[in-house]
Write a structure and sequence with these properties.
By secondary structure, this protein is an alpha/beta fold. The protein has helices at 8-20, 23-30, 34-48, 65-92, 109-122, 136-143, 190-193, 226-234, 244-252, 283-292; strands at 53-54, 62-63, 98-104, 127-133, 149-152, 162-176, 198-201, 220-223, 240-243, 257-258, 267-276. The chain starts with 7 loop residues before the first helix and ends with a helix.
Length: 296
């Protein structure tokens, strides 16, 4: 006999018996007579061609080997159904199915992780699509609609299509390997640092083409990846500025040293939220953008 697909109600009855331990208790949970519970399980076993419970000689129904085998699938179906209902409830209340965002690579990872953990708890049915970009690529992603909103670095531009707001800042500090020539120098100016290779973060967006940000050295290496820049600094292949949270442990352990360059004494990398003025954000996206904009 070919098995026939069970109904969701039959699966719910099966799980109720397993979880409560008896047909009577399952009936109480579901608000049905014990006979209705027995009838539903008998039909389920008939459709599957399997015996799911051992009844004879048992004080309470015990799962057969076949019953144990399909238990996880039954629970999976119930969880999927709960998720579907929760998502439908969210959509009827105006909740988005997905939120897409793009953040500047300089945004401290701990802050981003904490915000996303809270987002997951508050909006469990909303999918998330996250991109990490540098400099102008954040704003560009918002402009071309590949992200609903972004947390951008200090990119100055006037565009009626964009709405911007403050989102805190992170301190940038110049660092180098302990064996780098600048590491042994005390207080210095940009003039003293300009003769050594500077590692500079860049990006591929058209918004920052031909724009130098914080470049003082005659010779610089341009990198589109902050992780690669960090690795080259640790290898002693140049000097450069980094977000303080990312290199604090390196400085503490002696893998990098902070350079005393006057012009970099108190440099703040300021963040801004950015979204298209003609694209209103839904409740989940609005909450997340506001959460990421909190002062720190």
């Amino acid at each position: 006999m070919e098995p026939k697909a069970p109904t969701l109600d039959q699966v719910a009855v099966f799980l109720a018996i397993v979880e409560t331990g008896s047909f009577v208790a399952a009936g109480r949970r579901l608000g049905r007579a014990t006979s209705a519970i027995s009838y539903a399980i008998a039909n389920l076993e008939s459709q599957l061609g399997l015996s799911l419970f051992v009844r004879a000689g048992a004080s309470k129904p015990r799962l057969t080997e076949a019953g144990r085998a399909i238990l996880s699938d039954g629970r999976g179906l119930a969880m999927a159904l709960d998720g579907l209902i929760a998502k439908a409830r969210g959509l009827t209340q105006g909740l988005e199915a997905e939120v897409s965002l793009v953040v500047d690579v300089m945004l401290p990872a701990k802050l981003l992780v904490k915000a996303l953990e809270e987002f997951r708890r508050k909006f469990p049915t909303v999918s998330l699509r996250l991109r990490v970009e540098a400099l102008g690529a954040v704003t560009e992603a918002v402009l071309n609609r590949s992200a609903l909103f972004g947390v951008s670095g200090p990119l100055e531009m006037n565009n009626d299509l964009l709405t911007r707001g403050p989102a805190g800042a992170v301190k940038l500090i110049p660092v180098a390997h302990p064996d780098h020539p600048l590491a042994g120098v005390g207080k210095m100016t940009n003039i003293e640092a300009r003769d050594h290779i500077q590692l500079v973060l860049t990006d591929r967006s058209a918004l920052t083409t031909d724009r130098d940000m914080g470049v003082v050295a005659v010779k610089s290496w341009r990198l589109a990846d902050l992780g690669a820049k960090h690795a080259l600094l640790l290898a002693g292949l140049g000097w450069g500025s980094m977000p303080k949270p990312m290199v604090s442990d390196d400085i503490k352990r002696g893998r990098l040293v902070r350079l005393a360059i006057d012009a970099w004494d108190n440099v703040q990398y300021r963040f801004h939220t950015v979204h298209r003025s003609d694209t209103p954000l839904g409740p989940a996206a609005s909450w997340l953008m506001e959460r990421l904009a909190l002062e720190r």
